[in-house]
Sequence to fold (87 residues):
Amino acid sequence: MADSLRLDKFLWFARIVKTRALARAMAEGGHVRRNGQPVDKASAVIRVGDVLTFARRGTVRVLKIEALPARRGPPAEARALYSEQAG
Fold:
């Protein structure tokens, strides 16, 4: 398995967003922070241990990356990819 993944692919594989186009728009719109730093590229590199912060559905979500996926799997598999942190 790879040791890094594009931000847009991670958001889609982890089922944070419904489509990869939405993930790309979210990243390029500056709505995501990686380890506290703003991200403005969908191709930003994500690694295990990184912390993503973004607003979704009226709440701020803080996710710690626990594993990198090889595919977009079922919801239970997707939830195992990250842990929810206190915002």
